[in-house]
Amino acid sequence: MFSVFLVYPLIYIMNAIRHISQGNFIDTDAKAFKKNGKVKWPYFLYKEVIMNIANVGRTLDKARHDREQLDKSKTEWIAGVSHDLKTPLSYVTGYSSLIMNKDHQWEISDIMPYVEEIYSKGMYIENLIEDLNMTFFIDHIDKSQLKLRQIDLVVFLQNIMVDIANEPKAQAYGFGFESELDELETIIDERLMYRAVFNLLMNAIEHNPEETEITLSLSKRGDEIHMNITDNGVGMDESTLKNIFERYYSKNEKAKLHKGLGLCNVKQIVEAHDAQISVDSALGKGTSFYIVLPAIEYYL
Known about the structure:
This protein is of the alpha+beta class. The protein has helices at about 1-20, 45-100, 110-140, 155-165, 190-205, 240-245, 265-270; strands at about 150, 175-180, 185-190, 215-220, 225-230, 275-280, 285-295.
């Protein structure tokens, strides 16, 4: 009986610690626990120690799983960015080599379409690199780094809607802007908030079929400003909804993976303004993003 209550549990504890040190986290609680999760009676004397070891094992196993998922998502994200760079670069090199062909004498009028395409793709690459630089900057952003200025939020959002409607990808989509106010003065980092709202609107375009209706609405409730981006598209399942603000997460692995600011960065921008962002969605019913900003009308 002495060995049952003292020696065997100590051997189990030493083996469990060895398993953890070797990375076999899930093996730590295989022997000492019943199916209902309670400690078996021979190990009851060391119950607290054994339960703590088991908890450590499960925590480390979960951390390993989360790290593996993060590494996988990061790899896919890098592959997506690489693809987004490679495609326009192929146009630049292809058209450049065509123009440089010494066996052909080009007229200026013949060259200009190629030059314009090279310029367009070059600007695309420049904007993509700027987005990537901003992504790394936003990782460490806080309120003290915001370049705050007073703006009319109604005009600000109207300009974003004009820009988004002029995007080539947006031509087959319907857009609406609704505001309860003719003007609304507030203080924000105009550049960062522009990118956040623009990204939410582009997200609605990229993840929904053509003819989807996308609406940006603005209202004020007491000392809060509400901005809502709503669409009547395909919606999201519970798994996507749960992870939508996670870094490197993509709703559709086959889609372009966060070539600009991801929703994680949108959340960071919003929160740096002492604001909140949330999302509501259902499959087949569309998606709504809600941004709630504090109503700050003047500099302190």
